[in-house]
Amino acid sequence: MKTNQKGSNKAKQILDIIGFDDISDISMEDLMSGFDIIYKEEELNNSDGKIVRGKSRTLIKVNSAIMSNERKRFVAAHELGHHFLHKKLELHYDNSNTLNWFNLEKIAQRSQQEYEANDFASEILMPETAFRSFIKTKPFGPQLIKDISVRFKTSLTSVIFRLLTLDIAPVFVVFISNGVVHYWRKSEDLKVWVPDITKLPPPDNSVAKEYLDANYEYIYSGAEKAQVIDKSTWFKLNEREDDVDFYEYCIPTKQYKTIISLIWEK
């Protein structure tokens, strides 16, 4: 459960100022121009986003080489968070590390500004009331995550973490980087016993291991994205507990050699 809500609180203030409950139909360029911020997309070396605070105006840049428009939108919202939250930040670059929820959650105290900017971006792009209303009564799974991403025009990773921080779905999320588990987190409603898996490769029978062996290439599509696994694949069982079916769904990113794995009960 997050304790630092400075970013999301500021985003709620901004939404109140502009009088919108949801900005999914507003371009980031139009949103920023309303605050006299210059927005540009151009190729950036070794960074996804950049903020330059001048004497009278702020310039925000997003790397035009980013393939996903949803990812560009999240990067832009992150930089906008820096603008409103961190007045002393005059020149700053963001990359896959500073924008990664899973890295920031683990080292939140050392990356407080980045955590706050991500928290701002999540709330401004996926306002809690609209978010909860959209997913109400919908079954959890890969299609829901994709539908949320399309509906709110933001990245799959930000959708997953939004589900976690709002504790909406009983799910276990694992972030795997360079072949080992870097971070994991579960919703409070998911009653499982998690063994010590940090800094270890994913379990042999896991879907994550399949993607690792496939060099991060997509091996499942459509309805098969959610594969049935045994509960014991990721969790410890007590002596009186049956090994029931769970689902596992993975999002590999070959460029960064990462895998996000979601596990939930069937």
Task: Summarize, please.
The protein is of the alpha+beta class and 266 residues long.
How does the SSE layout of this entry go?
Elements (H helix, E strand, L loop, with lengths): L5 H13 L9 H6 L3 E6 L6 E5 L4 E6 L5 H17 L5 E4 L6 H6 L5 H14 L2 H8 L6 H11 L3 H10 L6 E6 L2 E7 L20 H7 L13 E4 L14 E9 L4 E8 L1
Parallel strand pairs: 1-3
Antiparallel strand pairs: 2-3, 2-4, 5-6, 5-9, 7-8, 8-9
InterPro entries: IrrE_HExxH, Rad_response_metalloprotease
Organism: Aequorivita antarctica
Pfam family, one: Peptidase_M78
Strands of the widest sheet, in order across it, are 6-5-9-8-7
Multimeric status of the protein = single chain
What is the strand tally? 9
Strand residue percentage: 15-25%
Given the structure, what is the number of helices? 9
Gap between N and C termini: 24 Å
Give the class from helix and strand content and strand pairing: alpha+beta
Measured as a percent range, the helix fraction is 25-40%
Domains, number: 2
Largest sheet: 5 strands, antiparallel
- Compressed to H and E, one letter per element, the order equals HHEEEHEHHHHHEEHEEE
Protein name: ImmA/IrrE family metallo-endopeptidase
Organism: Aequorivita antarctica
Pfam family, one: Peptidase_M78
Keywords: Membrane, Transmembrane, Transmembrane helix
